[in-house]
Structures are given as structure tokens and as C-alpha cells.
Amino acid sequence: MSADLNGWQAVCPMAELLPGEHTVCFDGDTAILVCNIDGEIYALEDKCTHQDFELSPGKLDGAEIECVLHGARFDVRTGQALCAPAYAPVPKFPVRIDNGMIYTRDDR
Ligand code: FES
Questions:
Q1: What domains are there in the chain, each with its CATH number?
Q2: Could you tell me if the CB of 56 is within 6 A of ligand 1?
Q3: Dist. CA 70 → ligand 1 center (Å)
Q4: Protein residue with least CA distance to atom 1, ligand 1
């Protein structure tokens, strides 16, 4: 790993996260949901802004993921809440691809 990747968390190789798939990694205590939407990788906190339930058990539908607890939907490209009962956006994290490996980090 090159020095400028310090602080970045390795997620998995690009080849292991196909379009329409998602996975979870951790940066410290922060669970990060990492999604492949049509070949673009997006990362956001794996925590619904309604009652803090994990978003990762939900299914991706295009660029949207639905919280399995009460049905709030979020755009994983932006973190934006799309319907009640969630109104606040989910924090979005940066992504970088290096040598075919996906990295992200909690940059808050
Ligand atoms: S905890 Fe996600 S919709 Fe309620």
C-alpha cells in the first residue's frame, strides 16, 4: 500500500464487487456500506438516519437502498433520504481505487 493511502481502509478488490452488489467494511467503529452502481463505487455510513439500523441488510434497487426496519429509502450516490420515515441524509464517504482495490475512509 502506498504512503498516501494511510488512513484509507481496504474494502475488497473491484473484481469482487460487481454492479448491483454491496458490502460492508469498518473504519474504526464506523460501519461503511460500499456499493457498486453501474461500475461506480459509492460509500456511505451503514446506518439509517431514522433509528440507526444497518442499511446493509437492505437490497439495492438501482441506486436506492431500502432500510429493512421501516422502509426508508436512500440514494446511495448522495446519501439523500428519499422517503419517510427518514429525512436526514446518511453521511457519504470518499472512495478511491488503487491497483484494482477499493478503499474508503470515515473522513468526518
Ligand atoms: S430505522 Fe431505518 S427506517 Fe426506521
A1: 3-104 (2.102.10.10)
A2: no
A3: 5
A4: 51
CB-side neighbour CA atoms (13 Å) of 99? 4
pLDDT digits (tens, 9 = 90+) for 10-38: 999 999 999 999 999 999 999 999 999 99
Name residues whose C-beta falls within 8 Å of residue 59's C-beta, 6 or more positions apart in sequence.
65, 66
Q: What does pTM read for this prediction? A: 0.93
Q: Is 70 in the pocket of ligand 1 (CB under 6 A)?
A: yes
Cell representation of residue 68: 429493512
| DSSP assignment string, the chain | --GGGTTPEEEEEGGGS-TT-EEEEEETTEEEEEEEETTEEEEEES--TTT---STTSPEETTEEE-TTT--EEETTT--B-STT--SPPPEE-EEEETTEEEE----
